[in-house]
Amino acid sequence: MSSTKNIAFIGASGGVGLSALKYALAAGYQCTAICRYPSKLSSIFPSESTPNLKIIEGNAHDLKAVSQCLDAGNGKLVDYIVSTIGSRPVRNGLKMSIEDPEVCQKAMKTLLKALSQLRSAGITGNPHIIPFSTTGLSKYGRDYPIALAFMYLVLLKVPHEDKKVMEEDLFNSGESYTVVRGSLLTSGETSRTVRVGIEDNKTGRESEAIGYTITREDAGKWVIENLVSQRDEKYNNKILMITT
């Protein structure tokens, strides 16, 4: 891995992704971000003050744009891929759906296809993929407070099913990863300690962290500080549950 980390961001125009991008840029990493409307990011990170940011116009389902984002130049892939893709929520009876019910799984399929095609073209590298997911998907027991059971099992069923497919595609890909499942996301920044639970997709729960919420700002900061800046090997190819 190069001394200067290269990070590709997918879904960084808001929320957890925007927070993660902010901390990555502040750390001096070379960052590339896909954005449907580049002005959304350039207005926050002007080129004159953030020369280490490259913005590519497109979306997470655009194979050409994703491929450009993953290519670090000089025949190398980026070192890390942070994906926080999502879709706007919509109400569907008792269920909370999203505008694109397959947004996350389509984005992961595009990402994996882009990596395959780039390698076939002779570009080398083994990026560590960090998709931001959600608690409530575990095969090994409840990882959210019992008081939120109706919300998780009924209201959020549609977006959760999408993220399940996204995760499974990554697990089966053979790529290096750390899946981050956040508890319910809120706004603002806190000084609260982020608690972390660890799960192995094949062998089960290794440690537990159950909580109600985590802010988008805290989540993005934690991802960069703990999975990029000081990457702990114990998180490799694991699922993490983060909450405060």
From TrEMBL:
InterPro entries: NAD(P)-bd_dom, NAD(P)-bd_dom_sf, Polyketide_Oxido-like. Gene3D superfamilies: NAD(P)-binding Rossmann-like Domain. It holds the Pfam family NAD_binding_10. GO terms for molecular function: biliverdin reductase [NAD(P)H] activity; riboflavin reductase (NADPH) activity. It comes from the Eukaryota. Residues 11-227 form the NAD(P)-binding domain. Belongs to the avfA family. This is NAD(P)-binding domain-containing protein. It comes from Penicillium citrinum.
